[in-house]
Write a structure and sequence with these properties.
14 strands; growth factor activity; mainly beta; 5% helix; Trefoil (Acidic Fibroblast Growth Factor, subunit A); six-stranded antiparallel sheet; Fibroblast growth factor; 189 residues; globular
Length: 189
């Protein structure tokens, strides 16, 4: 998004200011730009062909999300239920995380083919289709764990000590239940 500033009754974008600094006396052309992320590298591209095509982005490697609370892995079942599991060879614990924008991910159960979602009551479920309830803000915390907060409802994904999902309204920053450690899913495919 280009932020515009008023100057002498004119709207001047940051791009205009930058271009005027680089090439004084020439008219600025606001570039198209897109940012993509992959393999630990973020690339910012400019030009008329630059666009952010999410269908062409590569998802991250297969992952298991290990909960700090009780030692469970987040599990999305074929029937759409979400829980915690402790079996090393459980295919429903294998997830694909895909960055859709900076800090925003969708989480898909590889075997179930369902997306992790949170409804308006804060309950986790596996959605067969990608909806606005499937987008989560991923944050790397000081304790080296990640947290996943619903972009729509502002509640965290969490597992209780017994492996059951914790309702979103009962979660808050700092609780042990909201911390997940992404672990590579090896030998389970």
């Amino acid at each position: 998004m280009i932020v515009k500033h008023k100057k002498k009754g004119l709207m001047i974008s940051k791009w205009d200011k930058l271009y005027a600094f680089i090439a004084p006396g020439k008219q600025a052309v606001t570039p198209n730009c897109a940012m993509t992320e992959g393999d630990g590298v973020t690339v910012l591209t400019f030009g008329p062909a630059a666009s952010l095509d999410l269908s062409r982005q590569e998802p991250r490697t297969l992952t298991r999300l290990y909960s700090q609370n009780g030692g469970y892995h987040l599990r999305i079942s074929a029937d759409g239920s979400v829980s915690g599991g402790r079996q090393e060879d459980d295919p429903y614990e294998i997830l694909r995380l895909k960055a859709v924008s900076v800090g925003v991910v969708v989480i898909k159960g590889e075997k179930a083919g369902r997306y992790l979602a949170m409804n308006n009551n804060g309950h986790l479920y596996g959605s067969p289709a990608l909806t606005d309830e499937c987008f989560f803000l991923e944050r790397y915390e000081e304790n080296h764990y990640n947290t996943y907060r619903s972009q729509k409802y502002d509640w965290h994904v969490a597992l209780k000590r017994d492996g059951r999902p914790k309702a979103g309204p009962d979660t808050s920053q700092g609780q042990k239940a909201i911390f997940f450690l992404p672990r590579p899913a090896t030998g389970n495919m």
